[in-house]
Every structure is written in structure tokens, then in C-alpha cells.
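Feature request disguised as a bug: please show the residue count (423) next to non-specific serine/threonine protein kinase in the output. Example input:
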Amino acid sequence: MEEPGERMAGPPYLLRHRRLMDIAPASPSDSGHSGSKGMTIMVSILVVVIICTLFYCVYCWRWRKRNAVRRAQIESLRPLSNSDLPLMDLTSIHEATNSFSKENKLGEGGFGPVYRGVLSGGAEIAVKRLSARSRQGAAEFRNEVELIAKLQHRNLVRLLGCCVEREEKMLIYEYLPNRSLDAFLFDTRKSGQLDWKMRQSIILGIARGMLYLHEDSCLKVIHRDLKASNVLLDNKMNPKISDFGMAKIFEEESNEVNTGRVVGTYGYMAPEYAMEGVFSVKSDVFSFGVLVLEILSGQRNGSMYLQEHQHTLIQDAWKLWNEDRAADFMDASLAGSYSRDEAWRCFHVGLLCVQENPELRPTMSNVVLMLISDQTQMPAPAQPPLFARFKKVSVSEFSLAMKTDTTKTQSVNEVSISMIEPR
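Example output, currently without the count:
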């Protein structure tokens, strides 16, 4: 007799069938959803990989192209060895600057960092090294070397040589230990070191340097950024004009040029240039006049003066001149120790240079003549410009513009590569 459990169990194939029936089959909709989701992930990953690969290929292509252009530019500079300017080797410059150590860094400008160096013979130099971030490239470097290097004058900073090696581009200048004029002139602790004879000598030296640029050199150069921080002082306090980064060189006679790009420093900028983009040698004359008034007063024609007095240093000078109170304009650190006739002559020349009408301003040759000869008859100066005439802005807005472009970090040798644009 069969046991009840055995009858209920049934044949083996029926047991297997029941077990298979107990397993719930996956629905077609669930299977399709999982497959779709997996396909989306795979496609997304593939797209990302393709995009990353394309970006990498473009980056590599641009990197190779940029390096090829840079190598071509460097190779194009090799013929400079045939010029009058000495080529210096990179090893000597590394030794002179102690491999561009931080201790030897003097400052940094638009061209790049500047380092003090000492050559094996004991001569001190200032090395300007082109930065990778600099907007000035091989073309501007070549212009600096081939053109500015030809301008040799005792009142211009001298370019001693250059270095073009291993994708390095460097300019080597004479080293000037006494920093820039503004470091003395606008520092109450140091302004006393500038006595009257020294100030008079600085004014005349700057005038002679500008005369050389405008009329006596083989090229006609308009500086466009003459100011106290761009006048360096040697160990005997002789002035040397530097920073030709905004200079314009003309290969033909021209009275004035209209440029679409106004560059320079507010406070020193001639009104016709600041407002209309018109510059000429008379634009430099205006800047020289502002500089003369700053040297006489010991005050900067900048935002702080404007905020304190509600007018510019130029307007203050004009007011005191008309009221016959020129003595009140002179730097208090002089303590009255100056020749009245010499000081008044410089004051008169300064006001002639900052006249609103550029045609009334003297040329630099006339400026030098008026400064060295007390027999020269000088016309009465006309009123200098009022900034309110040129642009309707508030004092605070104008002072902000002046502050933006006049407060720059001082460096011991503030010289930079020229951006020369011949006509």
C-alpha cells in the first residue's frame, strides 16, 4: 500500500513543473526599461569620451602650433647678432642675477619682471625678462632692440644688450640705484634731499632728453607717458627718461596724429589727446609742464590732490600765478632756499607748457632755451585746461580715473619694452 505522502507528491516531472511555475517570470515592460537605461548610460559615456578626446586633440594641436610660432619668432630674432646691440648669453645672465632670485627682483611691469644683476666684471645691470603672460611679443621686442637701442643720450636710460636664447627674451639696461623721481619728490622724508639746484638740474635734464627725442635723434619719438615715475635718477641724481612702452616713432614729418586708442596717465595727459585721441610733440610738452609744476611744488597732480582741493594742481598753479603768490606754490621742504628768478622762470615755463591750446605751447627747443637763458623773452601764459570743459564728470569720478592710471607700483628701474607703431 502506498503512503499518502507519496501519492500527493506525484511523479517527479510534475514536481519539477510545479517548482518552475512557482518562479514569477519578469514582465516584458521591466526588461525593456532596464535595457533602455543601460543603453542611455553607455551612449552618455561614449559621448563624453568622444568630446574629451576632441578637446584633447584640439589642445595638442594648438599647443604644437603655438610652440611652432614661438620657435619661428625666436629664430627670426637670431639676426639681431648683426646689429650694434650686444647679444648676451643666458648663462652669464643667470650668474649675474643668481638665477633670477627673489632677492634680486626689483619690480615688475607690463613686459615682465626686472632683476638686478652684477656681471663678472663688476658692472651692475637691470635685466627685464619677458613674461609668458606679457601681451608684448617678438615684434615689439625686435622694435625695441633695433630702434630704441639707437637712441643714446645722457638723459635717457641706456639699453646695454639683449638675450634671445632657449625661448627667453630679455633686455639688459644700465642699473640706476636711486629709484625714480617720484620716490623722492612725493615722500616727505626724502623730498628735503632735493634742494633747489638739484631740482633745477633735473628739470633741465628732462627737457634736454625730450628735445633729443623730438628733434635731435635719428628718429622722431613721442614718449606719451612722461611722468615722475618714468624719470630715473643715477648715483649723481642725474635724470634719465625711461619706459618707452607707449612711445610712437615717426619716420616722416607730421604735426599730429589721431589714434583710436588713448594710452597714458591721467593728470599728465594733454586734453586734446585725452578727449579726442589727437597727439603730437605738444602732447609731450604738456606732460613736461605738469612734471615741472610737480617738481616745484612737491605735490602730485593726482586723485588725492583733486579730492583735497576740488581742482587740479595745474589750476592751483594758475590761480597763484595770477595772484602774484608764486611763493605759496613752492615746496615747503625748500624752506625758501632757492633763487627767486630761477624758480619763477621754471614756473613760467611750466605754465606755458600746460596751456589748453597746443599751438600756444612752446616746442622743447624753445623750452630748453627759456630755461638756460634769462635773456629770453617769454609770453604771458594762457589759462590751462579745466577738466570740466572736456567731460561732464564729478570730481570723484575724475579722481578715480586719475587714481587708476597714476598709482603704479614703483620699481628701482622702471623701464619697459616699447610698443612702437611707425607711420
